[in-house]
Amino acid sequence: MKYRHIYHAGNFADVHKHITLLALLRSLARKEKGFLFLDTHAGRGLYDLSGSEARKSEESNTGIIKIISALTPPSTDSISTVNSSTLPEEIKNYLTVVRNTRKESHSRNAYPGSPIFVLQSMRNQDRAVFIESQHIEHKALLETVRKQPHVTVECADGYERLKTWLPPLERRALVLIDPPYEDSQVDFKKTIVASAEILGRLPNAIIALWFPIKHERDSQYWINQLANTIAKPLLVSELWRHPRDNRVGLNGGGLIIINPPFQFSDRMRVWLPILHAALDPSPSQGGYEVRLLGVR
Ligand SMILES: C[S@@+](CC[C@H](N)C(=O)[O-])C[C@H]1O[C@@H](n2cnc3c(N)ncnc32)[C@H](O)[C@@H]1O
């Protein structure tokens, strides 16, 4: 596998995903009862945006760097000077995690991966399992997570480990499925099988499933297949920077939420336009959409 998430860390799709993830974690924590968080494709947990790979790809310029410069006074491009007083709480919470991560790692170029968003949200009664298949990434993840209580890190195939971890004793779970889509068709198929497996084991599991928008027809075909297979309403949230059927590569990214928490889509309709405006302030070819599929 050639995929290294460091080339993409902090890009617009990561920001959209991480704000959504954090909002889901906060929703689950509204109930006292603990839950299991399962990250099937966890990555290394912490990324250095000043390293040669991230500088080469410059992808964080489309995401975290762009937000910070959109929300700070001119020439003070630092997360500590972001004026967040008028921002929706979902974006504020996200920026707080990024700020804390930078403080703890003594680096203004650090960017948190999904495991850090989880670690900063977990309560004593919650558990987390992070699965990463690449040895180098897994080793770095162990270093990031460092023997936190109630956390398990595995070097394995995240799709295959679903059977082991589900259903959890708590009977409450949030599963993030965030594969690389190096071969898009393979991951599209695997995510449908995985979603059906999860719901077969725990029908009320909340699933957050990230997907790329490279070719509009492919992603919409996959969404319809997923909806038909699992026969449950889906919340689809999409954010794109280029026309959705452009051939530039990654035009946009989306998240499917299965079993979304109560009023989650209403909140998304509040913060997504604000995020989009911060990421793509000039009238351009980008856009966003939040829709519920399969609701009768
Ligand atoms: C998109 S990145 C994950 C990013 C991470 N979830 C985040 O938000 O920070 C995908 C990761 O999945 C890993 N991976 C690829 N195939 C896998 C598999 N079958 N099981 C577990 N991890 C896998 C890759 O090495 C890569 O680190």
3D structure, described in words:
The protein is α/β, with parallel strands linked by helices and 296 residues long. It has a single domain, classed as Vaccinia Virus protein VP39 (Rossmann fold), CATH 3.40.50. Helices cover 40% and strands 19% of the residues. The chain contains ten helices and ten strands. Strands 5-4-1-6-7-9-8-10 form an eight-stranded mixed β-sheet, sandwiched between helices. Helix 1 crosses helix 4, helix 1 runs antiparallel to helix 10 and helix 8 runs parallel beside helix 9. The longest helix is centred in the middle third of the chain and has 18 residues. The N and C termini lie far apart (41 Å). It binds S-adenosylmethionine. S-adenosylmethionine binds next to strand 4.
Spatial sequence of strands, sheet with the most strands: 5-4-1-6-7-9-8-10
The structural domain count equals 1
Q: Uncertain segments of ≥5 residues (pLDDT<50)?
A: none
CATH fold naming = Rossmann fold
Q: Percent range for helical residues? A: 25-40%
Oligomerization category of the chains in this entry: single chain
Total helical elements: 10
Q: What would CATH call the homologous superfamily?
A: Vaccinia Virus protein VP39
The Cα radius of gyration reads: 18 Å
Distance N to C terminus: 41 Å
- Give the topology string: H per helix, E per strand: HEEHHHEHEHEHEHEHEEHE
CATH class: Alpha Beta
Strand content: 15-25%
Structural class: alpha/beta
Task: Report the count of strand segments.
Answer: 10
* Backbone shape: globular
Gross CATH architecture: 3-Layer(aba) Sandwich
